[in-house]
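Entry for the shared binder. Reason: the reviewer on the internal report wants the predicted structure included alongside the sequence.
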Amino acid sequence: MSTEEVDYVSGRTRMFGIVGDPITQVRSPELVSAEFRRRGRDAIMVPLHVLPGDFDAVVPALKALPNLGGLVFTIPYKVRACAFADELSAQARVVGAINVLGRDADGRWRGDILDGLGCVEGFRRRGLSFAGQRVCLIGAGGAGSAVGIAVAAEGPRAIRLYDVDTAKAEALAAKMRTTAPQAAVAVGPPTVEGIDILMNASPVGMLDDPRMPIAADAFPPALIVFDAIVKPERTSLLALAEKSGCRIVTGREMMRGQIAKMVDFFGYPESPS
């Protein structure tokens, strides 16, 4: 191969995009593209910075591209993206948000939400379970809703929810009570008192934001702390958790849990060995 060309993209390459605002924090382009290549597929994912005022015009235009196989949605578009799906999965209907939109062979667009499944898988790979645990979840947006519904299905003893938008938190709490009738689900300010697992699914701490989603100078060392933010990988929340001697689960670990499911969803299943 000539030094004037690369071997991972050509005119035959199937294109996928991740849509968000901001977009510099995302890791899907490199992780999903690597999984496409590992599976021997001629496909690539690229970041697409779409401003809120342009979203409703840009997404239909992207869907019209014949070589576009699908889209991933990140902050702040997971709820708005539902309008562009011809069909929603059962979980997406419960959550009211999607993070993947894929084109079927018949040209119909299917939407699904994989955030929560990726989070549970990230915990499972660490040997950690939600069964019987007391959970505090911060954030009830698209990602928080998906994580909350998936966690509720794992049999926790209690779940405490917080969002700056109390109506969002109350709406998610109602859905989680249906999913996990055995769990005590409450809405209130975030706390680590009487909590086994602290989870941040809000954007607080993303990129150069040094803030914490919960006010604290230290955490109990028995606490497990999760942050859905991918960049930076060590947020202020996780840095304090490590300093306090807590076990942590990172957003990158959740992302790894999603990648295989995402590529499967886009129609590129793992080849049998």
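Summary line for the report: Helices lie at 28-38, 55-63, 90-95, 115-125, 142-152, 166-179, 236-243, 251-265.
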